[in-house]
Amino acid sequence: MISPDMRLVIAALTGILLAVLMIVRGRLHPFIGLLCGAFTVGLLAGLPLPDVAKAVQKGVGDIIGGTGLVVALGLSLGAMLHLSGAAASLAKGALQLTGKQAAPWATLGIAIIVGLPLFFETGLVLLLPIVVAAAEEMTGKDGAERDAAKLRLIMPALAGLGVVHALVPPHPGPLLAVEALGANLGKTMLYGIAIAIPTAIISGPLLAKFTTRGVRLEAPVLHDPGLGIAPPPRLWSLLIVLLPVLMIATGELGQMIPGMKGTAWLVAASNPVVALLLTNLIALPLLFGRRLREAAIQNAVWHETMGAAGAILLAIGAGGALKQVLVTAGLSDLLARTVLMYSISPLLLGWLVAVGIRLAAGSATVATITAVGIMPGVVASSGVSPELVVLAIGAGSVFFSHVNDPGFWLVKSYVGTSTADTFRTWSLLETSISVVGLAFVLALSHVV
């Protein structure tokens, strides 16, 4: 006779495996695969079909209603930075200030700064063609040596985008985890940045010295820069990139001042939706000037935004459905009991759960959504810092990007690596971010 706990574990594994097979083998969109996996988990766990359907609807609604707004506003801001030429201007300006020796560190810094307000795929599409073009100009060697030199500029940029995507709000994954686990947004941002910078250095410029040797590149697929608008002043571009982060940080830090907690404007400033919406409204006139009202400009911005938003929102919504069914079936309670019974570190457990979902579903955001959904009971029962659990899950969510991750194919196309070399460079870089990030989280847990 199978125990209820074992039945739940088997149901969860079966549903996730079915979703993987439908996505990888069946070539179906993650939206369909994850929804089918969610229903499978619920039914195998013994839940009535109407209850499973209600859990699916709640899971999708919770994600789209909260994180969905942040995703959409982040994508629209990314489209503006891309189509106005602001991001390209920032990147080229920074690279012009550095010589060849400092260029890898420059691309790392550019990616961390520009990637702060952008969804990962948006930052990738926006930044990578610029870095590739800069690498072409800065490397004059031939053959494999030239390709390796180019990659030593490109990989730090990927590392910068990867760490902020995994560890620093207001990215959708970490932000959702903050809300779900009741973590303090300001502390999470502070801890995340403190961990992200050394993690990016190790996983980017340092690791690239070893993983890029002997790699040969094909002609990359470069992105059309868009409307050919004269780029805005770089100071304005930098302001738009940093504004949402500065607003959130100001709101959070301001409320720590005696007598300021609960002040209406500080509460509003610290809300990511408000911060991103205001940044969007400020970005339109600053980045496009008098051409703002042209139909071609407006159509290009919102067409690029909605095209990306549709696929992303469907995928993370279905991830929310899978999370909610797992919670309704009792997996969160089971994990909480397991932590207490076997003294497993909640930080390591959160990381392992996120790693499992990441390997299965491919999406870092879906991995975060699913992991945080089943961890509140563990956080409450163990007393561990919810901010560190957020970061541990974020680190686990980027473990070993492979063929079921859209980012894997985007990197392959834009960089020009073969499939095998994409595993050797990009997949190892993501794994390094995950493992090194966890190590820093565990180290920080002994300090805070």
Description:
The chain is mainly alpha-helical and 448 residues long. It is 78% helix and 0% strand. It has 20 helices and no strands. α14 (331-342) runs parallel beside α17 (376-382). The radius of gyration is 22 Å and the shape is globular. The protein starts with a helix and ends with a helix.
Please tag this protein with its features.
448 residues; 20 helices; mainly alpha
N-to-C order of helices and strands: HHHHHHHHHHHHHHHHHHHH
Radius of gyration: 22 Å
State the oligomer: single chain
What separation lies between the terminal Cα atoms? 45 Å
Major beta-sheet overview:
none
Structural class: mainly alpha
Which of globular, elongated, flat, extended, rod-shaped describes the shape? globular
Which bin fits the share of residues in helices?
over 70%
Low-confidence stretches: none
Please provide the count of β strands.
0
Output mean pLDDT.
Answer: 84
**Count of individual helical segments:** 20
Instruction: Tell me the fraction of residues in β-strands, as a range.
Output: under 5%
